[in-house]
Design brief:
Four copies of one chain form a homotetramer. The first copy, chain A, is α/β, with parallel strands linked by helices and 347 residues long. Chain A is built from 15 helices and 13 strands. In chain A, strands 2-8-7-6-5-3-4 form a seven-stranded mixed β-sheet, sandwiched between helices. Chain A is globular. Chains in contact: A-B, A-C, A-D, B-C, B-D, C-D.
Chain lengths: 347, 347, 347, 347
Amino acid sequence: MKEKLFFSSDYMEGAHPNIINRLAETNMHHTVGYGLDEYSDSAKERIRTACGCPNAQVEFLVGGTQTNATVIDAILRPYQGVIAANTGHISGHEAGAIEQSGHKVLCIPSTLGKISAGQIEEYIADYYNDDNHDHVVAPGMVYISQPTEYGTLYSLRELTDISSVCRKARIPLYLDGARLAYALACDENDVNLKDLASLCDVFYIGGTKCGTLFGEAVVIPDPNLISHFFTIIKQHGALFAKGRILGIQFDELFKDDLYLKIGRDAVRFAHRIKTALKENGYQLFFDTPTNQVFCVMDNKELVEFGEKVVYGFWEKYDSDHTVIRLATSWATKEEDVDSLIEILKKR
Amino acid sequence: MKEKLFFSSDYMEGAHPNIINRLAETNMHHTVGYGLDEYSDSAKERIRTACGCPNAQVEFLVGGTQTNATVIDAILRPYQGVIAANTGHISGHEAGAIEQSGHKVLCIPSTLGKISAGQIEEYIADYYNDDNHDHVVAPGMVYISQPTEYGTLYSLRELTDISSVCRKARIPLYLDGARLAYALACDENDVNLKDLASLCDVFYIGGTKCGTLFGEAVVIPDPNLISHFFTIIKQHGALFAKGRILGIQFDELFKDDLYLKIGRDAVRFAHRIKTALKENGYQLFFDTPTNQVFCVMDNKELVEFGEKVVYGFWEKYDSDHTVIRLATSWATKEEDVDSLIEILKKR
Amino acid sequence: MKEKLFFSSDYMEGAHPNIINRLAETNMHHTVGYGLDEYSDSAKERIRTACGCPNAQVEFLVGGTQTNATVIDAILRPYQGVIAANTGHISGHEAGAIEQSGHKVLCIPSTLGKISAGQIEEYIADYYNDDNHDHVVAPGMVYISQPTEYGTLYSLRELTDISSVCRKARIPLYLDGARLAYALACDENDVNLKDLASLCDVFYIGGTKCGTLFGEAVVIPDPNLISHFFTIIKQHGALFAKGRILGIQFDELFKDDLYLKIGRDAVRFAHRIKTALKENGYQLFFDTPTNQVFCVMDNKELVEFGEKVVYGFWEKYDSDHTVIRLATSWATKEEDVDSLIEILKKR
Amino acid sequence: MKEKLFFSSDYMEGAHPNIINRLAETNMHHTVGYGLDEYSDSAKERIRTACGCPNAQVEFLVGGTQTNATVIDAILRPYQGVIAANTGHISGHEAGAIEQSGHKVLCIPSTLGKISAGQIEEYIADYYNDDNHDHVVAPGMVYISQPTEYGTLYSLRELTDISSVCRKARIPLYLDGARLAYALACDENDVNLKDLASLCDVFYIGGTKCGTLFGEAVVIPDPNLISHFFTIIKQHGALFAKGRILGIQFDELFKDDLYLKIGRDAVRFAHRIKTALKENGYQLFFDTPTNQVFCVMDNKELVEFGEKVVYGFWEKYDSDHTVIRLATSWATKEEDVDSLIEILKKR
């Protein structure tokens, strides 16, 4: 029996071969725990260099929801909440992890996953203009994602504007880079790692969806921003005992600029799939430049399609149609893209 | 330069060779995420079989503190706390992770890491006998560890008595098995996995310290105990995206009873070290049967010792002495034990 | 100098004369604490009778935000959130009190403060239809207010429908009656206390805005709904030491149906004010039947108006206008309403 | 039938006559809400004067547990806990209110309710000396009570020493003055309000047990200590709508030094009772100088005693004896003390 094609998500395989090999090769070395080992040191140093911020604090955590919950809890005071797009991962897809540590997500409407400097500025102004704002959760930080949950990108201009608004209001800007490698691999992208380090107060470089078995690298350009972050990580159950496993993975990911290259094929494949969809009369739900492709499918057709392709359910479109997501990744093979396109042609 | 000997802890290396090989071998297979894959299914089935509880819910989490915080939060209601030894891992070494989710740890004094059925019974009775108990946190579950943080073991008799007290009081018994493989490998031990499954309401089988890169397997013999555990895991940032990485590791750990055998050498080595310590006039701080050795060292001697051996600081003994911990593990080599013993002889 | 007219809110004075007199009269009686006294018993019994639910658990808390936070925390499990109108008091005006105890407010858009059975049904259906709903906060209860924050009322038909949806989904319905006396005093209202007791799973009868110095009476028709509510109240800092002070106040409020009558003048006065506003060419922001009047004022005119009348700021209307709230209460005097209307006429 | 004598606690009656009269007298005055009224202003000013700290922030909350939970949550960061005596009110008698907001109570053993500067210093030193202290909750503030839960007093010398240790360690000292009036009324006491204001970083002046219907006045000598305290109070459900009711009560309590005198008779009565107990052969459980008397009673005798006197259960002494508490208060009448002493004589 022929195996199905896997396009449901970007975390369906193990790790980039360089990483799995290095893990095997270093397996029996002895190191101390909790990320105080030499592999972690090396990885942190590579990341600092790549980001152009030699003093940055870099910490490795396991997954995205965990990282978001830990960072946000570390930054906010009890009376503060975090501004985010209503489509932000923290707003609706983290099972209440932000609220679990006592903080409110202050949602503002997004456009294709993005929020603007103007919207943030207005939110903050409205807060201060409200005579009763002492009865209301104060905006204490801003959360955005790059690429967004919809695969869209903030331009350097947009990000600079958001950063300015945050700095004027003296609230930190936090960027979720779960799929950052796919942003960095896009022609449309004009924001590099150094830009992130200069415009954000905290951001994380995603590993789980970008080539590692797991792991996210939190970068804090000004190491004084968060006091006792190590203990807060521990308290959130996010301190990894064998920290070197994270260190080794990110050390590989930032060796020879692998992170900058690892998403290129995925983005190219996504473009091929989008083109094929359009050529074959499918409606793109939104047309976004990174590794996620969203399209509308007839429910009947979807049954047959699902027998050949593992896809992601996104949302109901109408009673007869469904929005699905097809995601490529560093692990996607060109031959599987070819096969997928063949299936789309047979419509 | 000669490398130091590593005896500081039991999480200083990668994974058992079977595990690292299987991870490499399966690396590019496609699976769905979040532990719904076939590797996880197989691992869960092997664990159910090993524990003799075919209906058990089994979930894989990443680390011990995370597992404790998630399980305890899933079980307790807001007005309840968890009874634990004052030396329990949750009492003092998890950076307030239990309190972070709103629950109080109700400490009772331990004897070498253990608490007794009688103590628990008395705590519960005192609570109900207090006229003002409605103003006090109610005991809602019991936490114990096997082996304990001090390396000691509950006997089957002791565990049975604790279980009876809990069931009479209708509060769940939760057992932390972070180092469970080293208990199972001891001659002194008379509690097997099936006993745990019949006497505990929840327990976890430790992976991180017992042969995996990371991972703990939570076993809930009665799958109705916790509602929506998956969402609670997600909320605690403990849901692992590439769940199959956990599944593969535990599948290997429970293939051909590896988990029952993996701690044997470690325990034998610990006995050799304890014997050598005693023969060379060192004072054991406590004499416990598993893979952790605690002894008192003169501070001056310790400086020299530390140049050759990486040990664990346990606590200050007096102004001139320190209690140190020497831990063996599945990864310890006999030749390193030989070298350590040589060093001890040269006193 | 002439004193200003006070129409800014409904909690600007002390208590109904009957209440303040009874407090003075009983001042030196000895009772036990924490609401276990005979005054509290009598008040609870009167409330049970008024609500037609002889077995109800009745508890007295101090204020609205406290009551909402305590009740919601008592009902929800960690993985659950509370459905509410985006204009609900808990959504935006409680400084994150619900999130403080770890729960997400699941907002749905309101129409003049109200949400419909259909919206709730759809929200719940969408949750269950989402393939990934295990990653999302589960709807665990519904919060509505009567009258709403905008002064509008649910009809008996609407409330019955909402109750049916909740019961079908097996999630409790909670009604915030902070200003309930003003609903009960309206001709437009067709929902009485017995209806509330039969349709809601929990509701509270507001005292603070309806004649007491402070205090809200939580009614739980089925006393088995919440376990250990007393301890949860204590944990939330909401247990009142001299409980009899609450008991005495509610005992007076429910003597001779005072609660049913106490809002009548306030509602009549609000109608007079609305009529005067309309007759004098002011725009009502919304036209609602209870004791709150919302109108649009020119900012220049407002300066002068504010010298004579203490009003409530509601929100900015446009750059030249402001929405203000004028509230009447049990304490409003007809002569002050006359004076206010005179001022409005002088436009 | 003769009424029983009430000596069970110090919150069994209403308020001091001056207070209840003033509440009645001001009942229909209009004021703004939330403590921004002129009565609250006046009360705050009187308290600042009495404490000799003209810039202090003063806020009125409702009850003790609420005040403790709110203040502690406002001060601590997530990775910090509060050092307290194991007998402290927050340690065991607040139903987990401190843990509910995510913080651990770091208990140290007390001597008759007190902890010493030396113990605190050692706790902090041990924390910093622990190589693994990053895995442990950091001491972030110190909580003590005056008088303690056992009725004992810190001397000026002891309090000065504790304050020095805290300031050296840069952690705030918080003093719970639930029964402060009874300390201030003792001959043995050498700590006045100005001392508290100069040695503590936050403290509260108890009203509930010292003459008000309810209410505690939090004093923060340096108003910059806590940012956005108002919002944090609101978030904890502790913001009182009709704030003037608190203001009026504390305005009376600090008029003509009433607070300094209100506990005098209570302390004198407690001395009379202790003398009578000793003269009649009863064993004092501890002999403390304030308004609480603790003695050991034979269980059989207690049955008869309980028919005439409402006393407080403290704890079981042995199988035949019970420790009871007899509390006097501002409301106790000399004739009731006479009657109690008669009963004790009839042994």
